Amino acid sequence: MAPTILAQLSDLHIREPGQLVYGRVDTAAFLRQAVASLQRLKQAPDAVVITGDLTDLGEPAEYAHLAELMAPLPMPVYLLPGNHDDRVALRRSFPSHAYLGEGEFVQYVVEVGDAALVALDTTVPRDSGGALCETRLAWLAETLERRRGQRTIIAMHHPPFRTFIGHMDRIGLMRGAQELEILVARHPQVERIICGHLHRAIEVRFGGTIAASVPLPAHQVDLDLADDAPSMWSLEPAAFRLHAWSGTGPMVTHLAFCGSFEGSHSRTSVAV
């Protein structure tokens, strides 16, 4: 049986055409590379989810640029806001994405194969850190209760766990992480909590499941576990994640690098 595949990108930080992040990083070029990498996969994903920081400044022109860059992908693409995004501009820029809704928060449930992808809004306007208030947690509790027995993936921007990267932990999920962990522990159907924000691949046991962040198609945060480490970035290899499952088996997550590389070569030795 062929697996269902959900691709996860995050923290695209798209600017207007011709503009660079930090005056140096062409995030649009990196996203084009990621899209091309998705198109080259031997098995096409059934859907793509982008876990926040879609743009760098939350401007309508940036969202228009993002839509143009993602247009070559034939599968559904699901968007979440991050701390660099603007909910109003996001919704206005993607009117065909009805799942984005009209409420205070951008929270929704969509089906990917036989699984529920549950998008949880952690953003706080004008704040780099995130939060889960009583309203958002109550929505999640009701959603999970209705879908007991259905494989579930929770997608959110801010990670609910400590990373030991001091400057990132200080702008992580500042409120609601403990309540989220208690809630998730009551729902064993939650296979993954998938996050962005950290600009690195990090995995943690959380609430009886796995919570993980994804690296970027562009720049990564430096791997420095000092509490007082400076906020630095580098152009380590760009990557994304593929979450795959089939039948009643467990979900398997792969890390896929962006770009084209030498190969593939047969591993069969031929005697001469």
Quick rundown:
This protein has helices at residues 27-40, 60-70, 87-93, 134-146, 166-169, 177-185, and strands spanning 4-9, 47-51, 77-80, 108-112, 115-120, 130-131, 152-156, 173-175, 190-195, 202-206, 209-213, 220-221, 233-234, 239-245, 252-257.
Task: Please outline the helices and strands.
Layout (H helix, E strand, L loop, with lengths): L3 E6 L17 H14 L6 E5 L8 H11 L6 E4 L6 H7 L14 E5 L2 E6 L9 E2 L2 H13 L5 E5 L9 H4 L3 E3 L1 H9 L4 E6 L6 E5 L2 E5 L6 E2 L11 E2 L4 E7 L6 E6 L15
Parallel strand pairs: 1-2, 2-3, 5-7, 6-8, 7-9, 9-11
Antiparallel strand pairs: 1-14, 4-5, 10-11, 12-13, 14-15
Please describe the structure with a list of short key phrases separated by commas or semicolons.
about 270 residues, 15 strands, alpha/beta, five-stranded mixed β-sheet, Purple Acid Phosphatase, chain A, domain 2, globular, six-stranded mixed β-sheet
Could you characterize the architecture of this molecule?
The protein has 272 residues and is α/β, with parallel strands linked by helices. It has one domain (4-257): Metallo-dependent phosphatases (Purple Acid Phosphatase, chain A, domain 2, 4-Layer Sandwich), CATH 3.60.21. Helix content is 21%, strand content 25%. It has helices at residues 27-40, 60-70, 87-93, 134-146, 166-169, 177-185, and strands at residues 4-9, 47-51, 77-80, 108-112, 115-120, 130-131, 152-156, 173-175, 190-195, 202-206, 209-213, 220-221, 233-234, 239-245, 252-257. The strands form four sheets. Strands 4-5-7-9-11-10 form a six-stranded mixed β-sheet. Helix 1 (27-40) links the parallel strand 1 (4-9) and strand 2. It is globular and about 45 Å long. The protein starts with a strand and ends in a 15-residue tail after the last strand. The relative contact order is 0.17. The model has no long low-confidence stretch (mean pLDDT 96).
